[in-house]
Amino acid sequence: MLEAGSSLLGAWESLSSDGQVTVEGMNAMGYDAMGVGMMDGIKGLDVLLARREEAAFPMLSANLTYVEDGALVLEPYAILVRDGVRFGLLGLTGPQFTQGPGLAEIVAVEDATEAAAHYVPELWERADVVIVLSSLGKAADNALAAAVPGIDIVIGSSSAYLMPEPDRAGDTVIVQQGYLGEWLGHLHVRYDDQGAIAEAASRYIALDENYPDDPDLAALVARYQALYPTPAPATPTG
Fold first, then answer.
1. Cα–Cα distance list, 36 to 33, 52, 178 (Å)
2. Rounded to whole angstroms, how far apart are CA atoms 160 and 179?
3. Which residue from 36, 89, 194, 198 has the fewest beta carbons nearer than 10 Å?
4. Which of 111, 112, 74 is CA-nearest to residue 92?
5. Which of 156, 19, 25 is nearest to 100 (CA)?
6. CA 181 to chain CA centroid, nearest Å
7. Angle formed by the axes of helices 20-29 and 215-227, nearest 10°
8. What are the phi and psi torsion angles at 39 (to 5°)?
């Protein structure tokens, strides 16, 4: 299971706990990797790095660097092996990330296309499938796929689109599905004998009343709701 970014901080419980409830939930669900998106820095870099240490999955960004020396803040990619297939997962962060408190003085968001062009060939030396976890937005995802050869799949976030069918840019499949944890995206691809994607089909699944809450996750959320009660709305005066 993969997350493209901007997922740590949103609901009251996640904002109040600096994303701890989100990471605990993602750990419990068995997430494999997460790209870091623009909203993941709104509590500051120290909070993001603390959550990375708690996560049982890698948080990735190939274009988020320290201003001081240009070093990467996070791992740029991860290799995930499933059923003998090596998946190379590359994270790309949108430029709005530095709008978080104090971030512009500490970190920079480098050009995503240049970062992808640098790392994709390296990934092909270690992986059978290359997937980008992007928080650039849908239009930028399509432009990235057209500009950088060798990307099999772009999984996007930040634009909140529901896509009944994936986009294609050359040999690359581009998908994203919804926002706020209300939707689950499922992508099925078939490769031809030359290793190119011959067919791709995606669908979005509404996580509504047809999918009962997992008892353990419901208990986790309830625990954080007790720790951080939602403030009562202000009473109008005058």
1. 10, 10, 17
2. 5
3. 194
4. 112
5. 19
6. 12
7. 170
8. -85, -10
Q: Give the separation between CA 178 and CA 202, rounded to whole angstroms.
A: 13
Burial 63-72 (b: 16+ CB within 10 A, else e): bbbeeeeeee
Whether the CB-CB separation of 154 and 173 falls below 8 Å is answered with yes
Splitting the chain (238 residues) into consecutive groups of 10 residues, what average pLDDT does each group show? 87 92 96 93 95 98 98 98 96 93 95 98 97 93 95 84 76 80 80 84 80 92 92 65
| Residue at 95: amino acid letter | P
Q: Can you tell me whether residue 73 is helix, strand or coil?
A: coil
At 19, list the tokens.
């994303």
Task: Give the residue extent of every domain in the chain.
Answer: 2-227
What secondary structure, in 3-state letters, does 92-147 show? Answer: ECCHHHHHCCCCCCCEEECCHHHHHHHHHHHHHCCCCEEEEEECCCHHHHHHHHHH
CATH of domain 2-227: 3.60.21.10
